[in-house]
């Protein structure tokens, strides 16, 4: 391989990583300031609210499903316009039994006895819902009482096909807000994309969609909260917006291993979703093409850019500039390793832990790529072990939905 090709490859890889994680957020912020909407819609009076179906997909959630239903019943939404539905996917515990106990309070159970995965559950459940708007949620996600009202007000605009709410992560031990710098960074990007009407996907724990805009998704879909809004947008047009004030809370995974496994599954789902969303790769689709390539595709390809950067730096290390770049990468990866085990919550520790999160995220994406290549990805979504289960050392057949952000799976 000629030195010219090596140098060109190195700079392309470096530019792609810098643009994806620094250049794009800055650029989308500027574009949102210039062209984005700032004004939030007014709240609707009770008699003008659309009928709303809150759909909670659950698998073996007996530990939290009762509390989750109580939270749903506490929504500030007229009872005659609100439908609460729990769809269970082949549960082997008491989840369905607990849900049945709420039948006299209007909670509907859609019980699927054979476990076939979340995508199948959603496809089978949507035609049975009665609401004009569907609010998607998870069993371990807890909404603020006004979340429903805040989401549905956006649908007064006929061009809005979906609305994503804000998911706040909480520490499972203390219950305190544990939004890290990276999650705040992702929330910032989502907010800017939402102002432009080109938000990519949603937080699976809190988003709403026009029921008649729902497009059935393939049963092997993993990132349902990415694919559902985007397929609906592709087929029906319109835009996806973000509401920072429609809030839900969800516990973070209990340990690094659970988080890594979650991200690798999201990575597999991301690569698997590209053929489904091929329509977004048309440059004529405008802003959404720009955001999909910048925010999703380049991120998913990040591990390959990082490996390319490292490989070419090694081959060019006889030159001072590239030897220095190789040394900088070594220091960065060593910092990431050390930061993984840093105690404390000081700002310095949190900043250093960004390096370990970055490396871990890209490592998980790389593993997810190979999982996708093997075609051995299990599409039956499993939940994350809760804190008590992790502390007890239980082996739980679990894994979470794709977030995003969270990472919408970033």
Structural class: alpha/beta
Q: Please state how the strands of the largest beta sheet are arranged side by side.
A: 3-2-1-4-7-6-8-5
Morphology:
globular
Any idea what the radius of gyration is?
Answer: 22 Å
Classify the fold: give the CATH topology.
Spore Coat Polysaccharide Biosynthesis Protein SpsA, Chain A
Annotation, overall tally of beta strands? 8
CATH-defined superfamily: Spore Coat Polysaccharide Biosynthesis Protein SpsA, Chain A
Q: What is the level-2 CATH architecture name?
A: Alpha-Beta Complex
Total count of domains: 1
CATH class category name? Alpha Beta
State the major sheet: 8 strands, mixed
Low-confidence stretches: 390-410
Strand content: 5-15%
Number of helices: 13
Question: How are helices and strands ordered from N to C?
Answer: HEHEHEHEEHEHEHEHHHHHH
Tell me the span between the first and last alpha carbons: 33 Å
The whole-number mean of residue pLDDT values reads 87
Helix content: 40-55%
Write a short abstract of this structure.
The chain has 410 residues and is α/β, with parallel strands linked by helices. The chain is built from 13 helices and eight strands.
What would your notes on this structure say?
With 410 residues, the protein is α/β, with parallel strands linked by helices. It has one domain: Spore Coat Polysaccharide Biosynthesis Protein SpsA, Chain A (Alpha-Beta Complex). It contains 13 helices and eight strands. An eight-stranded mixed beta sheet has the order 3-2-1-4-7-6-8-5, with helices on both faces. Helix 3 links the parallel strand 2 and strand 3. The longest helix has 33 residues. It is globular and about 75 Å long. The two termini are 33 Å apart.
